[in-house]
Amino acid sequence: MKKIKLKNNPTVLDYAILGLLQRGPLSGYRIRKIFETTALGHYSGSPGTIYPALKRLQRLNLIHHMIRSNDSSRSQKLFHIKPKGTKVLVEWLVKPIEREDVTKRISQLLLRFAFMDNLISKVQKTYFLKSFIKETRDYIQQLEQNYNLEQENMLLHGRLALRNGIEVYKANLRWARNALNAVTQNSKT
Amino acid sequence: MKKIKLKNNPTVLDYAILGLLQRGPLSGYRIRKIFETTALGHYSGSPGTIYPALKRLQRLNLIHHMIRSNDSSRSQKLFHIKPKGTKVLVEWLVKPIEREDVTKRISQLLLRFAFMDNLISKVQKTYFLKSFIKETRDYIQQLEQNYNLEQENMLLHGRLALRNGIEVYKANLRWARNALNAVTQNSKT
DNA sequence: TCGCACATGTAACGTGTTACATGATTCA
DNA sequence: TGAATCATGTAACACGTTACATGTGCGA
Fold first, then answer.
1. Distinct helix (H) and strand (E) counts, chain B
2. Which of residues 41-80 of A touch B (CB under 8 A)?
3. I want to staple A35 with a disulfide (CB 3.0 to 4.6 A). Which of A41, A64, A81, B155 is the partner?
4. Distance of CA A179 to CAs A113, A183, B89, Å?
5. From the CA of A76, how many Å to the C1' of C24?
6. pLDDT category, B73, cuts 50, 70, 90?
7. Touching check for A104 and chain B: CB below 8 Å?
């Protein structure tokens, strides 16, 4: 008896698009340009990625589009987020942080953080950052332990590469502590 | 007229496997465990990833295996790297660093660095690190500029997320400078 | 004898990559 | 008039994910 798994969950790219559309409607082309030019753009903005993703999001009923062809303008599909899209986005934002999110998908966590502004409560934001801090602190400790134990067995480059991991995670930890400050200091609830 | 592209280049995972096998023969299972347990393991060690990858590397003539079934031991395929495998690995290690390597694939650069020990010359290592430093420095500058220009338009979380990027890249830069020191201080040529 | 670690694989699926493809508008 | 930018899409391909599948050896 085979378990058939219907995979209709959005991908990270989908969430990134939802996060952008949350701020206001955009055309596929605009979305592509944002991914190509801004900092949060290691999500490839190639047409072969974006247009299928937009189709997917429409199929999932998370976005819809209107064709803008008003007088002498180029034909353009303007995509809007639907209430269900916002709901799905928010669910993603408040998902509890697991160890593996920190160790393997930290850029995803940053993407989540970047979209939180008006969508979740201050309590949820601080909970996110506190979890981030906890998991990061624990992971650094684990890496340090590893470093101390294996130091003798490792060659120079392996040792230095591990050192890089530790330093980068420490930078993330420092950042998160600052961010927690900034978020709690912020007046809005 | 269609251009048919024969895609027979190794993937990042393939290079990671080659890098491991460079140190000595391993079974598929061992490789999986390394990816699952060590720091350089956001490369999934699931069987559905590793075994096909090993097959691929054999097809590319970069590795070969011997079956070890000596007395009462479990059947096990021991994979060895071939000279051609080493050659391909080294070519990857010394590939010039482009801007996009730093902005989008920095973890790949660290993986490359981790495997360099006995495979390339000190000159090549320092060249790698100097390029790394240059591109990282430039990218940080670009991010800072972006930060200063867009600061007013961005909401708190976007601003903080961008800040994270800057801080993480700064940590990478500091690390690279230290690593350059460590590599040049190292006596072997 | 039960469960865990060791050990190797296959199949379905969906996504991202790359390349191809088309057409309008703007500006030098 | 030609190039660059705006704008949207499709098709082939291959990789990684997930789930399924099987079997051995060892220790409690």
1. 8, 3
2. 42
3. A41
4. 10, 6, 41
5. 11
6. low
7. yes
